[in-house]
Design a protein that fits this description.
By secondary structure, the protein is mostly helical. The protein has one domain. It contains 16 helices and no strands.
């Protein structure tokens, strides 16, 4: 057990060094000095958003009870998953195997329920992102001083995202994978995959049940995720206020929309290193005329990411979860679940 904890600590330290090596620490420190106590407000807003996101996630886990103990346990799992997700490719889903494993090992939630909940919360997260970005694109359109090419970019990007995201939702809602699996089961290959296809149909059933029979939870999760996006815009507003260049709430929504459009297109980059800074630079230049403010804003976000990263690793160390432990246990449990 001590060896596992040491290995996890070693891996975590290496990941932390990697994140810090990709950050301009000198510029980061000067911005921290400039903002003073503002960084604590930024961390507080992000903390609130994280709890809101945890409540939304709990709505998708039918075997849990809506009480503080379960909320706290899920918050810890989310923290560890977020820490892994920041440094793995496909950051939105990078921490999903970690969360699924912790739910199974420590809280008795099956891999099937855990995987379904992760798909559901990410689906509501993405759908709410479309609604948030639509408000940002509308504000860009209503701002006559905004460059026309930014409006065109945001409009086309939003359209592409909306088609992809709601297309994914309808695949779940209409059980397209189960229908395709039923067609395949009538073929020779399908008969060899009969057990896998039965698991797929059960998984689809969990998703459809949430969308149709638990609509209050579905719309609750959707609303909480939408609130989270506006908390992100509020975070931008607070950062620029403490940097001495306040902007309006509408401009903060526009800035957050443009940044998230870029992040959505570069989700495969661990922690969106570099792309987040570039997006902030261009968007802030369009709004304030000072691109350096965008870099400063992005670095302030890196501060709270590093804080959350360290907290997530600390909680993961308490769980005694090393990457090798995770991979082996997940493989063993999935084998048992398929029997």
């Amino acid at each position: 057990m001590k060896a596992i904890k040491f290995l996890y600590l070693l891996v975590g330290t290496g990941l932390l060094v990697y994140v810090l090596s990709e950050t301009d620490l000198e510029l980061l420190w000067s911005n921290l000095i400039a903002t003073g106590w503002g960084i604590f407000f930024v961390i507080a807003i992000y903390g609130i958003a994280f709890w809101v996101d945890t409540v939304a996630w709990q709505f998708t886990l039918p075997s849990t009870r809506l009480n503080f103990q379960w909320l706290y346990d899920l918050w810890k799992v989310r923290m560890v998953g977020a820490a892994f997700g920041k440094v793995l490719p496909f950051s939105a889903f990078g921490g999903a195997p970690v969360k699924g494993y912790l739910l199974k090992k420590h809280y008795g939630i099956s891999y099937r329920e855990g995987a379904a909940s992760i798909i559901l919360i990410e689906s509501t997260h993405l759908m709410s992102m479309v609604f948030f970005m639509a408000s940002g694109v509308l504000l860009i359109h209503l701002n006559p001083d905004f460059p026309e090419n930014y409006y065109l970019f945001s409009k086309l990007s939003l359209a592409a995202l909306a088609i992809g995201i709601f297309g994914f939702y309808f695949i779940q809602r209409l059980k397209i994978t189960s229908i395709a699996g039923g067609w395949l089961s009538r073929r020779a290959l399908g008969r060899r995959l009969e057990k896998f296809l039965s698991h797929l149909q059960e998984f689809d059933g969990r998703l459809v049940q949430f969308y149709t029979e638990k609509r209050a939870y579905f719309f609750g999760a959707l609303g909480l995720n939408l609130l989270n996006w506006y908390l992100g815009a509020l975070e931008v507003y607070i950062i620029l206020y403490f940097l001495g260049h306040p902007i309006s709430i509408a401009e903060s929504i526009i800035l957050e929309t443009l940044v998230e459009l870029v992040r959505a297109g570069t989700f495969f980059i661990p922690a969106t290193l570099g792309t987040q800074e570039a997006a902030f630079l261009l968007a802030t230049k369009a709004i304030t005329g000072e691109p350096a403010l965008g870099v400063a804003t992005a670095l302030m976000r890196r501060v709270r990411e590093i804080v959350w990263f360290i907290l997530g690793l600390a909680i993961g160390w308490q769980y005694s979860t090393s990457p090798s432990d995770l991979a082996q246990a997940a493989q063993n449990e999935m084998t048992k679940d398929s029997r």
